[in-house]
Specification:
Length: 236
């Protein structure tokens, strides 16, 4: 659906999901994510679009994230988070930086997600830290993680150290990232990938959105993988 078609046909609002890895309350990581989301909504409204926002606050999911790592079992909060991300048109992912890396809570959450969940979804990457020495963490570490998940990260990343909060430059970076995200949402790229190019991706077993049904479950390899035994070789 083109931008003009969305506007003339009264399409539903874009669905933006904010993922915040902040652990304190209030959290600078959440504050940065909210500023980006607010700017996305404002810019979209200026272009005749509406954006509905949901927030995934990872500190509320900490126990379930740990359970998912060790057992692959998803609790109710994790299940809701996955559903929100699956329906999202775009994502703002904001992490605190500890010891020159995004927090373990933030990374662990994305480590347990299905590899196909975020394919082609537009994402703004953001991070906060106490010092500007961590500024490259977003592009050096976070961007590679989201590249592995095959998302469409916008060109502009957003980083805020303690001294940046009142700076004009931070506001400019937020605006650049927000307009890039709005343009990617309007393009409908993610929807086109899923409707026209899904079969061209290499999906892992159990991570293919239903396409795994094409796998031959009666083969010796699959019987062994599921705890059965291979058929004995038949002599001619």
């Amino acid at each position: 659906m083109t931008v003009q078609q969305r506007r003339t046909e009264g399409a539903q609002p874009f669905r933006l999901v904010v993922v915040s890895g902040g652990t304190s309350d209030p959290s600078s990581t959440r504050m940065l994510a909210d500023r980006i989301a607010d700017r996305v909504r404002t810019l979209a409204e200026d272009r005749g679009e509406q954006v509905a926002t949901d927030v995934i606050d990872l500190r509320e999911l900490a126990t379930e994230i740990t359970t998912a790592i060790v057992s692959q079992l998803m609790g109710p909060k994790m299940t809701r988070a996955i559903e929100l991300l699956g329906r999202a048109d775009a994502v703002v992912a904001s992490a605190p930086v500890y010891k020159a890396a995004p927090s373990g809570l933030f990374s662990s959450f994305f480590h347990v997600l299905d590899n196909d969940l975020l394919i082609a979804k537009p994402v703004v990457l953001a991070a906060t830290a106490g010092t500007a020495r961590h500024a490259l963490v977003v592009d050096d570490q976070m961007r590679s993680l989201f590249a592995y998940l095959r998302t469409m990260t916008v060109p502009t990343s957003v980083f805020a150290a303690t001294e940046d909060w009142n700076s004009k430059e931070l506001g400019e970076r937020i605006t650049r990232a927000a307009i890039e995200l709005v343009l990617l949402m309007e393009s409908g790229f993610a929807e086109q990938v899923r409707s026209e190019s899904w079969k061209h991706y290499q999906h892992e077993y159990g991570s293919a959105g239903g396409t795994e049904l094409d796998i031959d479950l009666s083969s010796d390899l699959m019987r062994l993988a599921t705890g059965g035994s291979a058929k004995p070789n038949r002599k001619a």
